[in-house]
Design brief:
By secondary structure, the chain is of the alpha/beta class. The chain has twelve helices and eight strands. 48% of the residues lie in helices and 13% in strands.
């Protein structure tokens, strides 16, 4: 199952493009929407709530998150965003560089998991989303120690009892997933983490949990599919080897991306894979992957092994200069 990740709504994409994407996703059967108080500099929930108004609430699954506060000076940011989007359309920059620039220009406050913030954030989210409950309410980018706050979880349990929240969960961005799992607190029904085929060793750890699993960033963020393609087709011999191993032409347009998403869907046994789907072509490919299961498990396991080869030969080499710089 795939869901619509709203991380780019009213951020990288403006109101018109965001609404177009939401309409297209809904028309193609997407019913899981993931948002947060901080998305769109604090405005994404309002746009999503307006879009869903008038649609049958019971058919939609809404997840929102708290703990990261939107930046201040939102009026100024609202004025600057169209200029930034125009500049990016002319001279795109890598996603990680863009994210670091945004954080410097519009810093957000993280790790706000006290009861006062949780209550205020929930009230604001319900009002913005125009609903009287959310299906999942997650601690946004929490740390394992944040699960030890009995006062916070007493409040969250109360929200469940009052019907304001159906289920509680966590989102975790750390690569050291073993620090978080197994979840130290009962009652958590969902864990959300980044996961792509390069991280496949975490799959069994996630699927062993009682909580539902939502993964995001199936394409690894930025230029990862293009880098894998470049590696796979660096020579005719390697391209032929990869293609013969998988029984498909790995150089065909979009094939690496389809394999990455198909792997994420196939090995998330009982959860959701979040995608950003702001173009019709990407939406169509994502829905096709989810519905058709066009690659067998054998092919996806073979792709996993080939990506291990790529990671060992390319990404470890790329990481070495960064590690040297970090030591200085």
């Amino acid at each position: 199952m795939i869901g619509f990740g709203c991380g780019s709504v009213l951020g990288r994409f403006g109101r018109r493009d965001s609404l177009r994407a939401l309409h297209s996703a809904y028309d193609r059967g997407i019913r899981y929407f993931d948002v947060a108080r901080s998305y769109g500099f604090g405005e994404a929930e309002t746009l999503l709530g307006g879009f869903l108004r008038g649609r049958r609430r019971s058919e939609v699954c809404l997840t929102t998150k708290f703990g990261i506060l939107p930046p201040r000076h939102r009026l100024l940011l609202r004025m600057l965003k169209p200029i930034a989007r125009k500049a990016l359309s002319i001279a795109p920059v890598p996603r990680d560089r863009l994210k670091s620039t945004v954080v410097r220009v519009a810093p957000v406050s993280t790790g706000n998991f006290d009861v006062v913030t949780a209550r205020r954030s929930l009230e604001q989210s319900l009002a913005a989303l125009q609903t009287d409950y959310v299906d999942f309410y997650l601690l946004h980018s929490c740390q394992p120690e944040d699960l030890n706050d009995d006062e916070l979880f007493a409040f969250l349990d109360e929200c469940v009892e009052r019907g304001l929240v159906r289920h509680i969960g966590v989102s975790y961005e750390g690569f050291d997933l073993e620090r978080l799992l197994p979840l130290s607190r009962s009652g958590l029904k969902l864990i959300q983490v980044p996961l792509d085929v390069r991280d496949h060793r975490r799959v069994d750890l996630l699927n062993a949990q009682e909580a539902a699993v939502v993964t995001h960033s199936p394409f690894g963020g930025g230029p990862v599919p293009a880098r894998i393609l470049e590696f796979a087709t660096a020579s005719e011999e390697r391209k032929r080897s990869w293609s013969d191993r998988l029984g498909i032409d790995v150089s065909a347009p979009g094939t690496i991306g389809k394999l990455m998403l198909s792997h994420a869907i196939e090995f998330n046994l009982r959860g959701v894979v979040l995608c950003s789907m702001h173009s019709e072509s990407h939406l169509g490919q994502n829905v096709e992957c989810a519905e058709s299961r066009q690659f067998s498990e054998e092919v996806l396991l073979g792709f996993r092994e080939l990506v291990d080869e790529y990671s060992h030969q390319v990404e470890k080499v790329d990481a070495a200069p960064a590690l040297l710089r970090a030591d200085r």
